[in-house]
């Protein structure tokens, strides 16, 4: 009977040892799990702490980047602001230079045009003088102007048409009611009439129209409607240069020696 009890105690001790060992192992496993879980949580916490700690750093970095960009923008704007007046000054200077060049070019063109006009007028005077000489030669050939009878008629007609008091004897075309006679075409007028186209009456075809002296110039008959001033020389019609001009109210003849006197004339073909 005692032997059986001993065996039973040994078995119990073995079972108890096995149980304790199993429980110890289980505790160790549980402890390792807890440690691993704790380590993971610590890692997560560390990571979270690191992220949380990095957030101000990121914000600071972003703020620094924004500030830096703002400074760069301000610097660019300031530089552009400083460069803009220089660019405007440069543009204005270019415009002034261009304007000066344009003015110089216009002046040169005007001078060249004036030179051409002067040459043209000079050529017209030469041609006019040649035409006048040719007309005088033709007139001498057609009728003997220098014979005594013609010379007497010539001088008598001019002397009879001399004013006693020109200021009271002459009348402008406005006083006469306006000019209603023939008008010279513009191209002919520009070519042979006006102050720049002067000539001498002597040697031109001559006639008397109702007691008024008339002469032919460039194909037109010019009749003096006004008397000529008493203070002019007796032979002005032989020696003085005259020209025909159109005023506001009609045609007038001028003596270059007495440019302030306008003698009313009529034009006919």
- Classify the helix fraction into a percent range: 55-70%
Average per-residue pLDDT, rounded, comes to 81
Strand order of the largest sheet: 1-2-3-6-5-4
Q: How many strands?
A: 6
End-to-end Cα distance, whole Å, is 186 Å
Give, in order, the helices and strands.
Answer: HHHHEEEHEEE
SS-derived structural category: alpha+beta
- Count of helical stretches: 5
Poorly predicted spans: 1-5, 140-146
Shape assignment:
rod-shaped
The gyration radius over C-alpha positions equals 62 Å
Largest sheet: 6 strands, antiparallel
Strand content: 5-15%
Question: Would you give an account of this structure?
Answer:
With 269 residues, the chain is an alpha+beta fold. The chain has a domain at 146-268. 63% of the residues lie in helices and 13% in strands. It has five helices and six strands. It has a six-stranded antiparallel beta sheet. A hairpin with a 2-residue loop joins strand 1 (206-209) and strand 2 (212-217). The radius of gyration is 62 Å and the shape is rod-shaped. The N and C termini lie far apart (186 Å). Residues 1-5 and 140-146 have low confidence and may be disordered.
Name a few traits of the molecule.
6-stranded antiparallel sheet, alpha+beta, 269 residues, single chain, 6 strands
What is shown here, in short?
The chain has 269 residues and is α+β, with helices and mostly antiparallel strands. The protein has helices at 2-142, 148-160, 166-169, 186-192, 236-239; strands at residues 206-209, 212-217, 220-224, 242-246, 251-255, 258-268.
Which helices and strands occur, and which strands form pairs?
Layout (H helix, E strand, L loop, with lengths): L1 H141 L5 H13 L5 H4 L16 H7 L13 E4 L2 E6 L2 E5 L11 H4 L2 E5 L4 E5 L2 E11 L1
Antiparallel strand pairs: 1-2, 2-3, 3-6, 4-5, 5-6
